[in-house]
Structure formats: C-alpha cells, structure tokens
Write a structure and sequence with these properties.
Layout: E1 13-24, E2 27-38, E3 42-46, H1 53-61, E4 68-73, E5 76-77, E6 88-91, H2 103-113, H3 118-131, H4 147-159, E7 165-169, H5 177-194, E8 197-202, H6 205-211, E9 214-219, E10 222-227, H7 229-234, H8 239-244, E11 249-256, E12 259-261, E13 267-269, E14 274-280, E15 285-288, E16 297-306, E17 309-316, E18 320-327, E19 340-345, E20 353-355
Helix pairs in contact: 2-3, 2-4, 3-4
The structure holds adenosine-5'-triphosphate (ATP).
Keywords: ATP-binding, Nucleotide-binding, Transport
Family: Belongs to the ABC transporter superfamily.
Domain ABC transporter: 15-245
Length: 358
C-alpha cells in the first residue's frame, strides 16, 4: 500500500465519507467529516471521549443515518442499504457474545440468520475458527473463555460473514495491558493476512500509533488530520493534535525573516512571522551535565525512571517547565534533581511551528 506525501490514500477506495454531519438536538456531533479508506487499509478514528468517533462508526455500519453528506462503499451510496445488507461487520467493545451459545454457535449465528445451509455453516465456521486459532475450543461457552479468546470469537463471528469492511469499536478496552498489546499485534497481523479493510475506534493514542496505516484525529465532531502514524506524530497539523498524540512541549517564540531561533541558538525555517508557538517532543531534547554560559540552561525539578527511559521535568528560561525523556544509558543518565543542565534540540526539523492563539 502506498500513501501520498500528504498522507492521502493511493489506490482504490472501498469507503468514502463525504461531508458527513450528524446533529442530535442542539449538538453537532459530526461536522462535515470527509474521509477515504482504501482496499486493505487499517484506519483508526482517534480522539477523546465524546468527539464523535462511535457516531461516525455507527453511520458507516448503518445504525445511525447522517443528517448531511454521503457514505459510499465500493462507490455505492449506503443510505438505501438496510443495516443487515451492508457489507460491513462490527466487533463491539463488549464483544456481545451470546452466553447460551457455544463458540461455534456464536460464530455461525449470522450465517443461520442469512439462511445458509447446515453444511455451508459448518464449513465456514470451521474455517473462521481456524483463522483465529480457536478450532480446539469450538464446543466451549463464552463464560469459559479468557478475554482474549472471547475477542477472537467476536472477530471470527464477523469474519465468517466476509464483510468488505471490518469496524471495531474499542475492541481492546476489556483486556489487561499486556494482553491488549499482544492482541493488537495479533489482530493487525490477521487483518493484513486476510487483506481486509478495517476501521478501528480508539481514544488510546499508543494503540492508534501501533495498529494503523493511517490515523484520523478527531475533535468535537471534526477531523483535524488524516495521516500516517509517523506523520501525525512528527508533523501534527496543529497544537491539539500535537498534544493528543504524544507528549509535547510548546515554546512561545518569535519568527523573523523566515525563521525562528530556538533557545539553543539553532534555527527552524518559518512561513509565519511574529509570535509563534514551536512544538518540541520530550525525546527531541538532549540534556547535558555541563551548562555553558549563554547557552540554553535549566535545572532538573523532578526525575522519574520509567523502564528504559527517565522522564525529567526541567525548569528553563525560554520554555517554562519542559518535559524531557532520555534513555537511561548515555549522556543524560543519572542526572539528579536540582542539577544544572544544558538543553539542546536534537533535530530542529521535527519542531512544527504553529500560530499563536490558533
Ligand atoms: N443517540 C444520541 N442522542 C443524543 N446524543 C448522542 C447520541 N449518541 C451520541 N450522542 C452524543 O454525541 C457525542 C459523541 O458521542 P460518541 O459516542 O460518538 O463519542 P465517542 O468519541 O465515541 O466517545 P466515547 O469514546 O466516549 O465512546 C457525545 O456528546 C454523545 O453524548
């Protein structure tokens, strides 16, 4: 799969969302959302609680109808398509398994509803269970499965219906942290192996960065940026995205003659003039134990060891209190609270510039 420089999709669109708005009473929950998802792509809708992610997913699935705009699947308008005829499969947050049916019964349920004959159901259920490695548990009931196994049943139940698009609403939220990480990798690998197109909903930025080919970052019903995880992280479109996708420091600086001079003396080219806000990620600042007169200096306020890295809060001129993350080995290892330090931006190319007051 190739992506354009702007993170735009290259290839055949399976799903096209055109200017979709959804209004509940006085609340505009979706505000002119447009998005295009290509064959085999994994796209994540990312944003804080209440920003409209689930509503957009529900509109794609047909559980809600847009008040304005269109949703096309394989170039066909979905509005006239009844919910049960839409070529989509939904994996819900709660998995919504039937407790009185076995694993095989749950997975075959949709096929039975569609009137598939017994032999066809058995064959397709067996194939779906094999895909998610649950063939040995076909006769078990959901209450006797682990969280991860229940999720795999929920996925198999959708896969067996061979949807064009897989829709997953916070599918990992019921799992503990360790299992969540392994299921994320497992599910991504499975979707890629089957060449499926999938849309995930999550409010967890790490999950979005791990899982996705592209991320659509939402705020109050609007899509703020659609891009590859790397672009969203390295070049966030605005301060909101910068802050939501990873930790960030914002420096209030001045742009003059097409550039901004950082507190360490390095320059960043700027299309803006006057007061600007420059974003620096915590891992893009190097700390040194020997501050130089006239250089960018600071004092370590707090430090916290988090596995392989140390997080520092550094009081500095030209930046208020900064967050800095350093590997526990190397130059910054062992800097103690109260130490005077030098600061340097490691790569100014990764310091996006925003207008003040945007
Ligand atoms: N049927 C409804 N009637 C009225 N308001 C609704 C309805 N469904 C959703 N909303 C409101 O729309 C907004 C967006 O809800 P939505 O569930 O899409 O957000 P979300 O980003 O998925 O949040 P979460 O992560 O908490 O699920 C919320 O303010 C919610 O209260």
């Amino acid at each position: 799969m190739a992506f354009g420089k702007d993170g735009g999709r290259v290839g055949r669109a399976v799903l096209e969302i055109e200017n979709v708005s959804k209004i509940f009473g006085a609340l505009t929950v979706l505000d002119r959302c447009s998005l295009s998802v290509s064959e085999g792509e994994i796209l994540t809708l990312l944003g804080p609680s209440g920003c409209g992610k689930t509503t957009l997913l529900r509109c794609i699935a047909g559980f809600a109808a847009p008040d304005k705009g269109r949703i096309l699947i394989d170039e066909r308008d979905t509005v006239p398509m009844p919910v049960n005829r839409r070529p989509v499969g939904v994996v819900f947050q709660s998995y919504a398994l039937f407790p009185h049916l076995t694993v095989a019964g749950n997975v075959g349920y949709g096929l039975r509803m569609r009137g598939t004959d017994r032999a066809g159901i058995d064959r397709r259920v067996a194939a779906a269970l094999q895909i998610v490695s649950l063939d040995s548990l076909a006769g078990r009931y959901p209450a006797h499965l682990s969280g991860g196994q229940q999720q795999r049943v929920a996925v198999a139940r959708v896969l067996v219906l061979e949807p064009r698009i897989l829709l997953l609403d916070e599918p990992f939220s019921a799992l503990d942290a360790k299992l969540r990480t392994s299921m994320q990798m497992e599910l991504r690998e499975l979707i890629k192996r089957l060449g499926m197109t999938a849309i995930f909903v999550t409010h967890d930025q790490e999950e979005a960065l791990t899982l996705s080919d592209r991320i659509a970052v939402m705020r109050r019903g609007r899509i703020e940026q659609v891009d590859t995880p790397q672009e969203v992280y390295d070049h966030p479109a605005n301060e909101y995205v910068a802050d939501f996708v990873g930790a960030s420091n914002i420096l209030d600086l001045e742009a003059r003659d097409g550039r901004v001079v950082l507190p360490d003396g390095q320059c960043v080219p700027s299309k803006r003039e006057g007061a600007v806000r420059v974003m620096v990620r915590p891992h893009n600042i190097a700390l040194g134990a020997t501050p130089e007169a006239g250089g960018w200096q600071g004092t370590i306020r707090h430090s916290r060891h988090v596995g392989s890295v140390t997080e520092y809060a550094v009081a500095s001129f030209g930046g208020g209190e900064l967050r800095v993350v350093s590997m526990r080995i190397g130059a910054a290892a062992g800097l103690s609270e109260g130490s005077a330090v030098s600061l340097r931006v490691i790569d100014p190319a990764f310091c996006p510039i925003y207008g003040a007051g945007e």
